[in-house]
From TrEMBL:
Principal location listed in the UniProt entry: cytoplasm
Protein name stated in the entry: Threonylcarbamoyl-AMP synthase
Function: Required for the formation of a threonylcarbamoyl group on adenosine at position 37 (t(6)A37) in tRNAs that read codons beginning with adenine.
UniProt superkingdom: Bacteria
Organism the protein comes from: Roseivivax jejudonensis
GO molecular function, one term: ATP binding
Amino acid sequence: MSQTEELSTSPEDIDRAAAHLRAGRLVAFPTETVYGLGADARDDRAVAGIFEAKARPAFNPLIVHVADRAAAAALVEWSDAAEALAGAFWPGPLTLVLPLRRDAGISKLATAGLDTLAVRMPAHPVARTLLAAFGGPVAAPSANRSGRISPTRAAHVMRDLEGRIAAVVAGGPSEVGLESTILGLSGPPTLLRPGGISAGEISAALGQPVAERAANAAISAPGQTASHYAPVARVRLDATEWRKDEARLGFGRVACDLNLSASGDLREAAANLFAHLHALDESGAPAIAVSPVPRRGLGLAINDRLARAAAPRGPDT
């Protein structure tokens, strides 16, 4: 692949990004969660390019981003529960996994051969403008090498994928900084991946409890592999004291190299998580020690990401 283009958010550059997508090329773009690596979800070769660029395990499905609810309903068997949740949280950081329509035309590579599809309507204005300009569904995992730290800035994308993708649309830092919550709706509502919207908020919108995915269940959504979101450095969790040569990632009132949130604000911590991991990893330290983060609300999602970052590495990570 030739040099990766850095595009602005001007109408001309958005049109150029959409043209890349129509030509089957890969484009990274900002969402409110993290930067996504987009390809035409209907094009087998384009979707295969995502797996190639990311060196991503082929059994891990992708989230398909859509411009509106009607576009989602054209791809999946839309339900009353989906309508209620989309009304409450779309556009926003909630992905719904629903049975795939027979006439959806989505690449089997995007579903990893499953009979369900993960769909999301992002809130970021640049993402929505690009989806409208492209006029179709865009498969878009996080724009980084598989298993590495998710990117919340265009510079993170360029550092990991320059020369491997056609373009990146630079739209500033991601506001949420944490991937979307994923909810399975092919059966009873089931939390498949925690994220910026809590199970409690989803339960309130549905008027019923949300089940949790069994730890030994087959992979049914992105972000479920054991080692994921990992820096090159080893990660040590729940550190209450620092060891020699460790980079120190704090939370709350603690002396450290970088602090997720000195005030203990979980929303601020989520927004800073991946950017701070990137920065500490670039310091060259052999290990990153992380202060305890409360396991409540957004803290559940933060701890999920940290646990995957600290997990033993397979050969592909």
